[in-house]
Amino acid sequence: MTDLITLQGRTALVTGAATGIGHATAQLLAQAGARVVVNHLHQAEAAQALVDGILAAGGQAVAIGADVSQAAEVQRLVDQTLAVTGGIDILVNNAGIIQEKAFLDTTEADWDRLLGTDLKSVFLMCRAVLPGMVVRGGGVVVNIASDLGILGRERYAPYCAAKAGVIGLTRSLAREFAPHQIRVNAIAPGPVATAMVSLEHMSAEWVEKELATPQHRLADPAEIAASVLFLCSDLSRFYCGQVLGPNGGSVMP
Ligand SMILES: NC(=O)c1ccc[n+]([C@@H]2O[C@H](COP(=O)([O-])OP(=O)(O)OC[C@H]3O[C@@H](n4cnc5c(N)ncnc54)[C@H](O)[C@@H]3O)[C@@H](O)[C@H]2O)c1
Questions:
Q1: With bands split at pLDDT 50, 70 and 90, how would you rate the model's confidence at 82?
Q2: What's the order of all strands across the beta sheet hosting 35-40?
Q3: What CATH number has the domain bearing residue 71?
Q4: Per residue in 92-133, pLDDT tens?
Q5: Closest ligand 1 atom, CA of 21?
Q6: Number of domain units in the chain
Q7: Ligand 1, CB within 6 Å, residue ranges
């Protein structure tokens, strides 16, 4: 890696990092030299295995469990992170859930759970982390949205609304915090081979539809992590409020 993409000396907090895109991101940021905080939700074993792998490769990492949809849990996560690291330079808001349901069957509880995890968590994490970045004189936030937040998708209204909200929140924070040398950007991935795109969460019909892109394939999580690394690095220092689209061609603006 060139010096431009070294994250040596920086601390990165990645939410929902025990699996999937968050897991690949934590691994890649650690490989680039960052000290990584691996947040997880009740996946202590998987998170510790990731941390152990990073440590064995000569990197620095620690696992901290917390539900990022709950304000008190977010504050505890950030307080514990600061106690261990002294400061947060990079925040990757990756944690998320998905639900397939006809709109007219969608309950208020479904809406609150989805929006709480996929959108409110980004608000809570940014509210807890940005003050420290302002004091430190800079930082980077990368929010994981989705191509579905741009395209919309039948039977996924709350998810699409949440991810569109993440894009709006990203652009607003990018404008508000640019004067503090804090860069806020988003990534809107297309279909990625993780647990989220599985029969556990989607009907076979929709898993098949996920493949309907020009490249006709699911991404490997590492292909999304590469975009996160770029946005975290100094290579992207003129990126502000942008939405990168590693999506196999699902969206061509
Ligand atoms: N897989 C895809 O096709 C795809 C496409 C576009 C965007 N995304 C987004 O990428 C992100 C990562 O998803 P993934 O595909 O890696 O799936 P995943 O299910 O492997 O990862 C999501 C992670 O978030 C964690 N999480 C859920 N709720 C949480 C909470 N309240 N607090 C803390 N952690 C929580 C889960 O435990 C899990 O480890 C999500 O935001 C998702 O919406 C995924």
A1: very high
A2: 60-65, 35-40, 11-14, 90-93, 139-144, 182-187, 243-244
A3: 3.40.50.720
A4: 999 999 999 999 999 999 999 999 999 999 999 999 999 999
A5: 16
A6: 1
A7: 15-16, 18-22, 39, 41, 43, 67-69, 94-97, 117, 144, 146, 189, 191-192, 194-197
Tokens 């209204």 — which residue?
Answer: 157
Q: Rounded distance, CA 46 to CA 26, Å? A: 13
Task: Answer whether residue 89 is part of any domain.
Answer: yes
Do strands 139-144 and 90-93 pair parallel, antiparallel, or not at all (unpaired)? parallel
Burial class (CB in 10 A: 0-12, 13-18, 19+), 61: buried
CA distance 44 to 38: 10
Q: Show the domain range for 136.
A: 3-244
pLDDT given for residue 209 in this prediction: 87
pLDDT at 154: 96
In tens, the pLDDT along 46-66 reads: 999 999 999 999 999 999 999
**Residues 10 and 34 sit within 8 Å (Cβ to Cβ):** yes
Q: What is the mean pLDDT of residues 206-231?
A: 95
